[in-house]
Design brief:
The protein is an all-alpha fold and about 210 residues long. About 40% of the residues lie in helices and about 0% in strands. It has a domain of about 130 residues. It contains six helices and two strands, in the order αααββααα. Belongs to the plant homeotic and developmental regulators ALOG protein family. This is ALOG domain-containing protein.
């Protein structure tokens, strides 16, 4: 725009812009944030989290006794990993025997265990499932897509929804009354501690803990 003004006001004694011609040029746009990878876009939070999750799972496998190569990892191992993560959870899940079972906001603390929230687990499994295939795994052998994992997540969702009085899945159509699940309910309280030396995994998984 200065060039237009310069043309139109050429030769005038005191063009309006004359007093501001020494203004510094506009600051250049800020450089894009540095990225760990060489792509032109910064990795999304999803991508970054996915990478962290994948590293955490790899660490879990390396610490596994007996050794557990990724190629031999099954849905059952994934569930071991997921249950292992429960010890770092921050979501109170009331036992059915707790007087606050089903109350979203209990008036007093209770000794019920803390677990990983279903939403966190669901997102985690989704990221790991994608990462598995991005790292060369075949879709048909993806342990994170195993039926047992899907069933487990569904159980966790229903159990936590009941325990906390929260209705998940509002976006979906109304679900029919819950079918009895006791015959195939998965015990969330299993809490397998596969490896006592878990500090690194804990840090990788729950930075704020
Ligand atoms: Zn409770």
């Amino acid at each position: 725009m200065l060039s237009n003004n310069a043309k139109s006001s050429y030769g005038r004694s005191s063009p309006l812009w004359a007093t501001s011609q020494n203004l510094p040029p506009p600051p250049p746009p800020p450089p894009p944030p540095k990225t760990l990878v060489g792509v032109e876009q910064a990795p999304s939070r999803y991508e970054a989290q996915k990478r962290r999750d994948w590293n955490t799972f790899g660490q879990y496998l390396r610490n596994h006794r007996p050794p557990l190569p990724l190629a031999r990892c099954t849905g059952t191992h994934v569930l071991d990993f997921v249950r292992y993560l429960d010890q770092f959870g921050k979501t109170k899940v009331h036992l059915t025997t707790c007087p606050y079972f089903g109350l979203p906001q209990p008036p007093h603390p209770c000794p019920c265990p803390l677990r990983q929230a279903w939403g966190s687990l669901d997102a985690l499994i989704g990221r790991l499932r994608a990462a598995f295939e991005e790292n060369g795994g075949k879709p048909e052998s993806n342990p994170f897509g195993a039926r047992t994992v899907r069933l487990y997540l569904r159980e966790v969702r229903e159990m936590q929804a009941k325990a906390r009085g929260i209705a998940y899945g509002k976006k979906k159509r109304k679900r029919p009354p819950p079918a009895p699940t006791s015959d195939h309910a998965i015990t969330i309280g299993g809490g397998h501690v596969v490896n006592a030396n878990n500090m690194q995994v804990q840090q990788g998984m729950q930075p704020g803990t």
